[in-house]
Design brief:
single chain, alpha+beta
């Protein structure tokens, strides 16, 4: 099992991916919607993704990832990270934004 520092780094990585997506659009009409929630009951972190956002007639999430702070379910963590990376790549390609990491 990972230490607290490694767990926090993973959570920050997911949060940063969410923020990168959120900062480049409203989450509607084709732009991905991403929600990042934390709590101290049930899942520690919930990340919700709608690939094309609201306003497309679809009310369901394309990804719903509930995790504990330790990311003990590594498959769920990896699936969430990959989903966020796909959305980030898409918005930077479609919108011709420069990636802030470059």
């Amino acid at each position: 099992m990972e230490g607290r520092k490694e767990s926090m780094e993973r959570m920050r990585e997911l949060q940063e991916l969410c923020l990168d997506i959120q900062m480049h659009g409203k989450g509607e009409d084709g732009h991905p919607y991403v929600g990042f929630e934390t709590g101290n009951y049930g899942y520690d972190v919930i990340i919700k993704i709608m690939d094309n956002g609201f306003g497309t007639g679809k009310a369901e999430h394309d990804g719903y990832y509930g995790m504990d702070f330790e990311c003990s379910d590594t498959r769920r963590y990896e699936a969430c990270k990959e989903h966020l990376l796909r959305m980030k790549r898409r918005i930077f390609e479609e919108d011709k934004h420069e990636d802030p990491e470059d």
